[in-house]
Write a structure and sequence with these properties.
The protein is α+β, with helices and mostly antiparallel strands and 127 residues long. The protein has one domain: Nuclear Transport Factor 2, Chain: A, CATH 3.10.450.50. It has four helices and six strands, in the order H-H-E-E-H-E-E-E-E-H. A hairpin with a 2-residue loop joins strand 4 and strand 5. The N and C termini lie far apart (34 Å). This is SnoaL-like domain-containing protein. It holds the Pfam family SnoaL_2.
């Protein structure tokens, strides 16, 4: 089993910032569905993942499918935001120590992307 993926699932269940802090590598990169440039570095990745946890952590988020190939994981998720059905994928690559080195989020449909952008903007302003 992918140790990083198991740690990610533990974090998602606990939403414990200390667990997330241990999970992200120093040279990690985050690819947002609404920001066109990759966000490079541990602090930025932590900032985005923490904000996403606030936005998506409304009690409706759940992973519905998981594809794993060694250090790579593709996790399909569903949730609801302000009455809008959100469907997306977290594409995560882990290093040999099980830390996140690359995290890409893709979201559909367009209404969902717009809602994610709106709610993430509010969270990012508050950090």
């Amino acid at each position: 089993m992918n140790l990083g993926l198991a740690a990610w699932h533990r974090y998602m269940q606990s939403n414990d910032p200390a667990q997330l802090d241990q999970l992200v590598a120093d040279d990690a990169v985050f690819h947002s569905p609404v920001v066109h440039t990759p966000q490079v570095g541990r602090e930025k990745v932590l900032m985005y993942l923490t904000a996403a946890g606030q936005v998506f952590g409304n009690g409706t988020f759940r992973y519905v499918r998981e594809l794993v190939d060694g250090p790579e994981a593709c996790l399909e998720f569903e949730c609801e935001m302000d009455g809008i059905a959100v469907n997306g994928i977290d594409l995560i690559r882990f290093d040999l120590e099980g830390r996140i080195v690359d995290f890409k989020v893709m979201v559909r449909p367009l209404k969902a992307i717009n809602k994610v952008w709106e709610l993430m903007a509010v969270q990012m302003e508050n950090t």
